[in-house]
Automatic annotation (TrEMBL):
Residues 54-90 form the F-box domain. This is F-box domain-containing protein. Pfam families: F-box, FBA_3. Residues 115-402 form the F-box associated beta-propeller type domain. It comes from Brassica rapa subsp. trilocularis. CDD domains: F-box_AtFBW1-like (cd22157). The lineage of its organism: Eukaryota, Viridiplantae, Streptophyta, Embryophyta, Tracheophyta. The gene is A01p016640.1_BraROA. PANTHER family: BNAA05G37150D PROTEIN-RELATED, F-BOX DOMAIN-CONTAINING PROTEIN.
Length: 428
């Protein structure tokens, strides 16, 4: 009887060795056994190779349960494993099988040097009052911009911009891609049909006087960076928000043709690389202008509009506008009363925004900055069905003196929180 080897967490479990013929459903793995390998009284000669029969489906199942960073290390185990882990089918099944996670990101030294982007994530749990975030990666020389939405989560990748620099990263694999854009209003999109990432940026300045049309650049990504850059045109408009990618389309709010004119949502078709339509919308949807909060709600584009009419610095009511039919330009409106007031002050440190919902359908409100040096980081989950709200502490988000000292955090730290992010092992 063979003894099982002890393995570290995240590695493959030992499989009993059996001598039998290898079928086409099985793979043969060779492992070198030393003289003192504990294999009974058989031949213990050095360098002997034993056949470990691993069924293919078991191999796939085992690998799919491992963290993305572990899989990246296993790429060098063998050519077979490299081909399997990098195969389109395995990447797609891995993404589909993983439960949603939350991602918290923040930058230190907003008004000074050195800048650094911290990306943390953790598993979501329904009904809990606390969650734990673990540090996935840091990216040097990056500062999150001032404003509402800081970054977007698109099919396992995170995207943010720093002036004319656009940064895309994958927390599961550690891959980071940085490239130059001709404007700051760049948005990341994903085409689920062709499994292709593309970025959309506006070339024509919003300050151009009465342009007859606007030029946009479409940046196709892959193979470690930019594959191609093409240009498309659209009727003139004045963008207000960053884009949100939903089901292969990028949406962003704008005034058309000039600021203060007709409120619209521009719809860009990622796959066919064209401005599909201008979707007219009630003015109340864009009441907050650049602070308009675009989210995905049950697979549809939606906008969270805080009602700050009473005090101006906080809200205990918000409106949820949902795009029901893009072709007919039809919107629905729901009003929700909160059991407590949430801050929405012009001061960046006193504002809660929503960047989406979790898998359970809760609308999540999160702060735009860290609350202070080594202070607890809280987000609020509001259930539209029960009308209940719960405060959830995210442990690990720069909430200790040790963390601030180790990474040299100072001053105001911009923060962003994405409540529904799926791990991906895809590589650009």
């Amino acid at each position: 009887m063979m003894k099982r080897k002890e393995h570290e967490k995240g590695s493959l479990e030992a499989i009993p060795l059996k001598k039998k013929m290898v079928t086409h459903h099985q793979k043969q793995v060779f492992c070198d056994e030393s003289k003192d390998n504990g294999v009974g009284s058989g031949d213990k000669s050095p360098g002997k190779k034993l056949n470990v029969l691993l069924p293919c489906d078991m191999e796939v199942e085992t690998l799919s349960r491992l963290p993305g960073k572990s899989l990246m290390k296993f790429l060098c185990v063998s050519k077979n494993w490299y081909s399997l882990i990098r195969s389109q089918r395995f990447v797609a099944s891995y993404y589909a099988a993983k439960p949603s996670r939350f991602v918290a990101a923040f930058t230190n030294s907003v008004f000074g040097k050195p800048e650094r982007l911290f990306i943390m994530s953790g598993e979501e749990e329904e009904g809990t009052s606390s969650l734990v975030a673990n540090l996935d990666m840091t990216i040097p020389s990056v500062t999150l911009p001032h404003g509402s939405a800081k970054f977007s989560s698109v099919h396992g990748f995170l995207a943010c911009f720093d002036l004319s620099k656009f940064i895309i990263c994958n927390p599961s694999t550690g891959q980071v891609i940085t490239f130059h854009c001709k404007a700051t209003g760049t948005s990341l999109g994903y085409d689920p049909v062709d499994d292709q990432f593309k970025a959309l940026t506006q070339v024509t300045s919003i300050y151009a006087h009465n342009p007859s049309s606007m030029v946009h650049e479409v940046i196709t990504l892959g193979r470690g960076g930019v594959v191609s850059r093409t240009q498309v045109t659209s009727p003139p408009h004045h963008p207000l928000t960053m884009g949100r990618c939903i089901n292969g389309f990028i949406y962003y709010a704008a005034w058309a043709p000039i600021f203060g004119a007709t409120p619209v949502f521009v719809c860009f078709d990622v796959r066919h690389e064209r401005i599909l339509s201008f979707i007219t919308t009630p003015k109340d949807v864009l009441l907050r202008g650049a602070f308009t909060l675009l989210i995905e709600y049950k697979g549809k584009l939606a906008v969270v509009v805080p009602d700050c009419s009473k005090f101006g610095l906080s809200f205990n009511r918000f409106y949820l506008w949902i795009l029901e039919d893009a072709t007919k330009h039809e919107w629905s409106k729901q009003t929700f009363e909160l059991p407590l007031s949430l801050p929405f002050s012009p001061a960046a440190g006193e504002r809660l925004i929503s960047q989406g919902t979790n898998k359970a359908g809760d609308i999540v409100f999160s702060p735009t900055t860290l609350p202070g040096r080594a202070q607890p980081f809280y987000v609020f989950y509001f259930n539209p069905d029960t009308k209940n709200i719960r405060r959830v502490r995210i442990h690990g988000v720069a909430d200790t003196e040790e963390f601030w000292s180790r990474y040299g955090l100072t001053g105001i730290c911009r923060a962003s929180f994405s409540p529904q992010h799926a791990d991906s092992i895809a590589s650009l």
